[in-house]
Amino acid sequence: MKTRHFFGKFAFVIAILLVLAACSNTGSSTSSTSKPSAGNTPQQTDWPTKNIELIVPFAAGGVSDILARSFAEAAKGIINQTITIKNVGGGSGTVGNYELVKAKPDGYTWLWAASGHISSALHVTPAQYKKDDFTIVNKVGDMVVTAVVPKDSPFKTLQDLIVYAKEHPGEVTVGNPGEGTVVAMLATMLEDSAGIKLQHVPFQGSGTLLPAVLGKHVMVGFMNVPEIRGQVEAGDLRALAVMSEKRVDLLPNVPTSTEQGVKGVTGGAGHFIIIPNNVPGDVVRKIDELTKAVYESDKFKQLMNQAGYQLGYKTGADAKTEVDAWYVTTGEIYKKLGQIK
């Protein structure tokens, strides 16, 4: 029953969204209706004049799904059309991303993207698109990654894991939420930086990885901080390190990888709003304007704060620079390790 803790800190968000879904759910999609309001709403043009579909390229109930639904909820009063969430899982996010690439370029199909399936995953996961086959409107923010182990694991610190892995090459099983994801890439970067050999075990998302770590089916799990906060606080899991330069507020007592002498193993799963290529420029600018207004709203900030999410808006140009740099960095590491497919 320990898995009932999963995303426990998101319970209030889920409750709100399930009520909305009960009223409007059809098939595999749910929707949130946004109504215009006075005040800080950006000036409207003729666009949008119909509902907007927001694709989540992962199964319902995961982090990306919850964040996207929180966005749709906070958009009420800012975006004057219905935002429909459509879950299209598979291929570490690449299946849903391909559906976005094929969509009509009219601005009414968006995708809640993560760094992996629009960048690093393209090195190791077969996909029917390339990294420039879509347009990045802007960046929403990031989630910090952590390494966790069962509560009775012999590993107390990240250095304990490294020392053991050096003495037992290839024996340490490390679970990740999917091949090519940023989370999986950070485990690979640890392998490269520390000079160790790990046995990587990809899962179909964090929902299947978490019980595997709790059940000791893998020795270590690499996951986003909010996904395991409840289990760490309950004492069911031990966090060895957060993969960041600074400690995070959700787990203030967990040291960073840098503090433990591991250099260059920092990063998080960035999230972006992307659309098909060839959407008219004035529509792209309006999408950026409206989504940024949602990010800056008190409602969205509150939801993201309680979810442990680090907001960090970037323009489309700056976001693309970040994604392209991550693609180059991860490509070099995958090539060095002989993992390029």
From TrEMBL:
PANTHER family noted in UniProt: BLR1237 PROTEIN, TRICARBOXYLATE-BINDING PROTEIN
Keyword Transit peptide: no
UniProt keyword annotations, A-Z: Signal
InterPro entries: BUG (IPR005064), Bug_dom1 (IPR042100)
Keyword Heme attributed: no
Name the UniProt record assigns to this protein: Tripartite tricarboxylate transporter substrate binding protein
Signal peptide: 1-21
TM ranges: none
One Pfam family in the UniProt entry: TctC
Family: Belongs to the UPF0065 (bug) family.
Annotated source species: Paenibacillus hodogayensis
